[in-house]
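Notebook, p. 212. Picked up where the previous page left off. The plan for this session was modest: take the two constructs that came back from the sequencing core last week, fold each one, and keep the raw output in the notebook itself so nobody has to go hunting through shared drives later. Recording the first one now, exactly as returned: residue sequence, then the structure token string.
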Amino acid sequence: MSSGVEHITFKRPTNNGQRTKPTQPRHTGILQDQLRRAQRRPWVPTFSLAVRILALIRVSGAMYSNINDCDEGQIYNFWEPLHFLDQGYGFQTWELSPAYALRSWAYILLHFIPPRLGRLLVAGDKRVAFFATRIFLAFVSTLVEATLYRTIVTAVNERVGRYYFFLMIFSAGMWNASTALLPSTFAMYTTALACSYAFIPTTTKNKHRTLAATLLFAVGGIVGWPFALALSIPFIIEELFVYGADVVTPESRLAWMTSRFTRLFGAGLAALLIFIPVTAIDSLAYGKLVFVPWNIVKYNLFGGSERGPTLYGTEPWNFYLNNLVINFNFVLPLALISLPALAVTYAVDRKRLGLYTPTANQSSPFTLLALRLAPLYLWLGILTLQPHKEERFMFPAYPLLCFNAAVSIYLIRGWLEVGYIKATNSPYRASQAVVFSNLTLSIVVASSFISLTRILALWNYYHAPFGIAFDLQMTELPRLLNATGLLPVYPPNVPEDEQPRIDLTPVKEFDLKLCLGKEWYRFPGSYLVPSGVRVEFVKSEFDGMLPRHFEEGPLGEDGGLEGGVLKRLSRSWWMRPQTTFVPEDLNDLNKEELSRYIPVDECDYLIDLDFPLHPSSSPLEPGYATMTGTWERVSCRPFLDARHSLTLTRVFWLPGEAWQSRNEFGDYCLLKNRERVGGKERLWIEKRAQDA
């Protein structure tokens, strides 16, 4: 370099105005992803997006799902009492008699406002009140499901939360359960919401978790269904004996245990306060001091040999497995292998379980996750041991079933990742492979598709009772009013969409009776029968006890309001004091009561099911639909003949002749008594002519 020469070196600017993107904090859930940690996290819907998606699905279910549990279940034990509170008439089962008091009026009262709001929107149309109630239940389910989903995302794993979310929204089981007016559905809400707290690892500092979960489990058991409290057992075990997020040294273990016991005991005492308003409402409604949760437990467990749930049928041990396979397809086996899958993961992929290697003073993530998977096994085991089984009994565990399945999917994906790395000896190639995401996507999509075919099967094969009720209100009764001149006549230039809704109030002038024979258990409820039409029963081959009508008139001293402070309070404070009346024609032995029936020739309309390809009749169940001289077919809808249809094609629905040709259908009909209805039409026309 020559003397006196300076060299200047130019460098690229180090400050280009761009800020370094902050590193995302690592997920702290129980399960840890092992690939792509440095990359962005997997996409999961936000709470807001989850609510919007769930609301769309659940409201659709509220509008289009069937009511499957009709036989003295959802309809007669809950929809009819709600209708009685709202409208002043309806059917009463023996469980609602003060002599037995097995149904909580406090639970029914929780649903009193939605039908009233529906009536405000469209006055005089009970159908709107019915669907307003179901939409209300749909939104409750939406918020509960979304809350649990976000807890799974934050406390367990983001991918597990995503799998859970999509398994839930497309599940045929949740399609039915989410909007059912049943205590078991209410227990499903409270259990899922309780788990949104219980799934967070317990710690001595987090007292809110203990109190909230305890109260929610208690609400589900006291207001809803007392047996659902069994689902809280793993939570109680964790709260009392598992360190959770605490680090407990041997010296502080006694103080730690004392603190945990004291905290749970205090939360339990607070939960007992729920009994006060529930017992007050139920006692006021029944006119005597009652504890409905205890009555339910006593009847089901200590009813004796002559009474109890077995009077209403028993099922084999595999009933729930068969039912869950239909409603959840292969999601069920995935849920049932979740605990064994966790054990396999502990052996072959232990790093996936938690952020740390636990010491003797800490809880293992394996233990924490096992406690969250345990409630499903516990619930399924308890119900399987009971001889009387019903689909609705499984409802409280439906969200937990989807959670267990989501965990299994995630753990199986982890095994494949471990195997891929061992085969290729390249974690980088494993992180770039799409086979893992394609596998999990295929599982979720396949399950959703099968669930969709089940939902479509329920609609196409079994929706006829709803369709017939619609035809009665929207077609036949307007025709009757039009034929007798009781419909208003609008000027010809008024567009149809600007005409007011048809007012069916004049129907009461005809004193119409809609009768149910062998189809009594598929009755969709009084909310779907317009006011002015009386529902009655006619004798069929069924020889058990049918519901009776609630007392509808005012009760005097002879009506049973004397003889107690609570009965006198009911007259002043309870909206329907008729619920305190003790009927003499109700029993808990399922013995037939002949006073329920009216002669069939007193019926104006009759609902009957006819299978023309395989006709059957008896003196008590003649083929009314074929007696065309007496009964006219007003409307008939197809209804699946399950006995003569192939199992696969009757359980799932697919388009095309090749699939549908394996099924056979009957006619679910609304029949009109030609003589009675025709005579009433003629009398009313003559009366109007004389008045004119």
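Okay, moving on. Second construct, recorded in the same format:
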Amino acid sequence: MGVTRRSVLTSALAGTTLAALSATELAATADAATAGAATAASPVGDVVGKITVGYQGWFACPGDGAPINAWWHWSQNWSQAPSPSNNVIKAWPDMREYARGYQTAYANLNNGAPATLFSSYDQQTVNTHFQWMQQYGCDTAALQRFNPNSSEGPTRDAMAARVRSAAEAYGRKFYIMYDVTGWTAMQSEIKADWNGKMSAHTASAAYARQNGKPVVCVWGFGYNDNNHPWDAATCLDVINWFKGQGCYVIGGVPREWRTGVGGSRPGFLDTYHAFNALSPWMVGAIGTAADSDSVYQNINVPDQADCNAHGIDYQPCVLPGDVSARQRAHGDFMWRQFYNMVRVGAQGIYISMFDEYGEGNQIAKTAEHSSGVPANSGLWALDEDGITCSSDYYLRLTGDGGRMLKGQLPLTATRPTPPVVSGGGTTNLALRRPTAESGHTQVYGSANAVDDDPGTYWESANNAFPQWLQVDLGATMSTRRVVLKLPPASAWNTRTQTVSVSGSTDGSAFTTVAGPAGYTFNPATGNTATIVFPAAASVRYLRLTFTANTGWPAGQVSEFEVYNA
């Protein structure tokens, strides 16, 4: 089993409470709070003003083609299939949108489906994750890169290429985030890895830039434990080396970075101040909304003041909470953090994490209730506190948090995101409404797309992209997402259609509601794709524009459904 951040931080955090800070910390808090605020160090870029998600991309399964050829991060003993006695994960993913699953040694799910898991090595998995990032407003992904000079190295190299491909395909940004935990020869090897391998990815238009510079993060400097043994001078050398390569350098640092106590080594303040941005780690340190309020008052406020005074961007963590520890409080815990980080004036927000099923802190789609987890596994689902939450709830919540960060939603302590799409959100507003089209072939007219019959379908004129399909909702109303379906028959092979959505109040002037993106329809998972709008659209007419289809040279839809939540 590999090293995880939580496993190496437990001892460092032990004995330090949020409610009772030491006298040293309180004194430093007072000093920093009176330091005076400066303007933000950097303008909006791919980090500042954006939601960044930590992306592990470190799950593999035997038979997926990965060089590691193991149950990488899915089990305690990677050579054996995950099971109740060989388990390291704390939550079960919702597998319905993955093209391929790998059979585990767990019993079937409580709904009778086989207990399968995804592999990050499959490009479709990474594409699915980045499609979710696009749909739910996650701007940038920080790909975690641990010591690559081990048996994991070739698989990690391949994951960087897969992330780059997905980011390019779905219009997201990405950057390399080195986690130096346990990396003995870090000082020389991290430089060689950047020059020899990772810097090549900065040639991609999808590689994140801030202040015109490629972004790199180094997580782990200054932690007061044996897995992070370097002195301040060694760490400063690495920071300045990356800056000398023209990079914008983020530091993933202990939450006590400013005071030099508890989880932080003393004497590191000048080293921390050498970073362009600071992102203090909070996983394992907070677990309730009250904890977040305490951190806001005693840590975030003086942190922000210190960063402002030194021209450093502040990118604090926001986490959904550990499902297994029952911390999430159906989103209230996470929203309180969004509220606190926005009101403190943070330049950006880092989500811990996108796909961390091992720590239970993932925002990626997760089993909604017990029917979606293996029988007798002991795992909790998202409804662990009795409140039903949709599998995409924490993605939707992150999207709303991002809108509040960007000023698109007013600052509010009241969570605006419902745990489930309920009420009017379950009514298909397009059902049997009038339609229009660019054209169709044979008998496959546009009315088939709203007739509530999955066996009939609209098919545009062939070999003549772009093509469009439109529905008239009858009156101007708020819309939030569309669901597109193809016939469920297995004869409809998996295909990806490139679709954009535009809207109009008069049927004449249309504006973009959701930009063009590829949506995969897989008969194994219902041949369904959902397009969640970046923001609610008040429209009467919704138009789908098709520009590509990998399965047939035409736009194809059996059901065009519209919902207001």
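Notes on construct two before I forget. Residues 424-563 form a domain with the Jelly Rolls fold (CATH 2.60.120.260).
Flagging for discussion at group meeting.
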